[in-house]
Specification:
The structure is a single chain. With about 850 residues, the chain is an alpha+beta fold. The chain contains 16 helices and 50 strands. The chain has a 6-stranded antiparallel β-sheet with strand order 3-2-4-10-7-8, with no helix packed on it. It has a 6-stranded parallel β-sheet with strand order 31-30-29-28-27-34. The longest helix has 25 residues. It is globular, with a radius of gyration of 28 Å.
Length: about 850
Amino acid sequence: MPVLSLSSAAWHFRDAATQRWLPATVPGCVHTDLVAAKKIPDPFFGTNELGLQWIEERDWEYRGTFSVPPALLSDEVVELVADGLDTVATVTLNGTEVARTDNMFVGFRWPVKSRLRPGRNEIVVRFESAMKYVRANSSFTPPREINDPVGGCVRIRKQQCQFGWDWGPRFVTAGIWRDLRLESWTANRLEAVRVTQHHDSDGTVALSLAPETARPADGLTFHASLKLAGKEVAQAYFGRAEAGQRILSVKDPQRWWPAGQGAQPLYDLTVTALDAAGQARGSVHHRIGLRTIALDRSADQWGECFRFLVNGRPVFLKGANWIPAHSFVAGLTRRDYERDLRAAAAANMNCVRVWGGGIYEHEAFHDLCDELGLLVWQDFMFSCTLYPGDERFLANVRREADYQVRRLRHRASIALWCGNNEIPGLNPESAEGELKKGYEAVFHEVLPQAVQALDGVTPYWPSSPWRGRFERSHENGEKSGDTHFWDVWHARHPVKDYEKWSFRFVSEFGMQSYASPETNATFCPTHEGNVFGPAMENHQKNRAGNQIILDYVSRRYRFPRTQKDLIYLSQLNQAHCMQVGVEHYRRLMPRCMGAIYWQLNDCWPVASWSSIEFTGHWKALHFAARRFFAPALVTAHVPGDEKPTIGNYRETTVDEVHLYTVFDGPAPRSARLRWELWRLDGRRLAARSRAVKLVPGESVRHETVAVRPHMDKHGRDHLYVRLILESNGETLSEQSVFLTSPRFLALPAGAPRVTAKAVSPNEIDLTFVAPVFLHAVDCNVRGLHASLSDNFFDLYPKVPRTIRVTLPRPTSTKTLLARLRTHSLVDSFA
């Protein structure tokens, strides 16, 4: 079937109120086209965002010219296919209107053969201002606006965080944001194939195939071929009467597993429609993983489970929330996704949650998740505020859900369809009256009906969080459903409050930090880089963000020497908070079966909850995540706390340290648990080791270390506990435990000795040996764009530690050592 991509047409755009056309890119958007034409400055730099809000008030036109090849016009039907128009668009072909759209999340097909002509053709797409549309459709106003500073974004089916969020700018875009093309066909066309897997008790996997065609499938037969690594493992011909039945059988299937649980083999399934003469009438190709995924909500001793079973095996979900990869999502490619998704897998994550205020992600995103074993918790695109429930809006949502479920249902990584983000909890009005009726129409009727009708296998969950009813108490989160826990950060509760609650599944919790000086330099001149200055404040979208960061940093660390030290401390604090939360939830296994922190990535350079900066730089949190999400984890629970009393005297209730191992690997293994109690001056006071058995799915408390006698004798400001979990000479997990806030520790000063050994032209091993204990050593290789296997790590006296540095180009050890700078906690104030 001939296809003509219109992305390569000669495209221009203009402000519809003017006559001047400028070059344009498709896929693209008006903001990026204006930047390319040098009509606006870099939207991310300084406070430029504030001066670009006029763009959302204008209508914009895109015009493309192209020639149609004769082969295309010789077919019976020629369709204009638009995978994504953002958003209120009127499409005209050779002066005749083709269609109007008002949903960014729906792909469209329109018959246009009669409108085409030999030779030159012209297509014009006029985008009405989204804000004009919002004001014209003002019959519904939500009771409260959470993130939209102007208001009304719920009235338009468009990426919600474009209108502003507490980590993102307000850039309300317009444009042809996904592929635009012409496709031709004759007689009939195979549109899609619904694939259902049947995993039988004898290990065989059978595939039911239900082709979906543009016209009734009378006279069509279908050929299905299944290949693995290029080798065909099953094939069959079948007719319309057999559609939906078991067509292909795989007798020795290689099953797909989430990361850390096994491999991710992907089979190539091709289904071709054939007419009576054997002529192909379209084909569909999917890469599929053979697996089962179920959401287990059965009763247990604590209430009701909330756990995912993959191939029948309970899997603790470890991951982070995903927001759009860029403020301008038009034209994103595999390269735009690969960096951060590979970083998620490298940090031992097995899932990402596609958050409901962004977009339904590109095929390349889902390709990578399938390949990397990252389960996808897929929100529908509704977040934080109430939406209309009238019939027009419901019809629009129904089209959107049908389109997206059909598009993604075959994906190995899709684990859950979720109706929305946080609407019931943030909007108590949704529990009563007409607002509740409209809410339930969208999230308890339209969306689950679409999932059931078009997918029928993947579980649906109406909201995150949700407990089965309109409430959000922490007590009920200990019994059922999933929880967003924001007492730490938004409510400014102590970090130890993570340990107060035994939730079943935690799908959001987080702590902000500043981006690195290198990332800040991409948008802020050095002389304007003060965190309270206008440029930095514009890149802090949470109204209390700076104050909350400083609040938590001041509780844990001493006053920093410089702003660079403040940034470093903010990242250490963020990593510490997430470590406390994640390790607590993992210790609760199997009562708690998921920890998904907020958030993995950024859409522009900003102070935020992310663990990966917009530039790709890993924060301390992401290195910590690699450690606290490790399959085999040694973790400490320190009951009690230290608090100030009258007169600001410090009082502690800490007496002991409980030592746990947590393991979620696929098979048992033997290991050895060691602990050592040290003075900060280098004297070891006590030590012990024991053999342990690591069993999949088990959290085990092995030992209690009585530290009160040592605290009384030496002072808690002079002590730390070192934990090591090792197996066959390999360190599986390691960490340091303090018995007081680090700001009170009598940390010794000292610089590590560093040696370098080339492993390959682009890889160098650095070995660090410190004369004293150094906490959270940050290695910065200036200007080399290097990636490190570990960072923000502890160095123990005279104990070598080796990390690998990977560089984009061959580099000598001499150059690397000359560029290397190290910085530890003591350097931030000493």
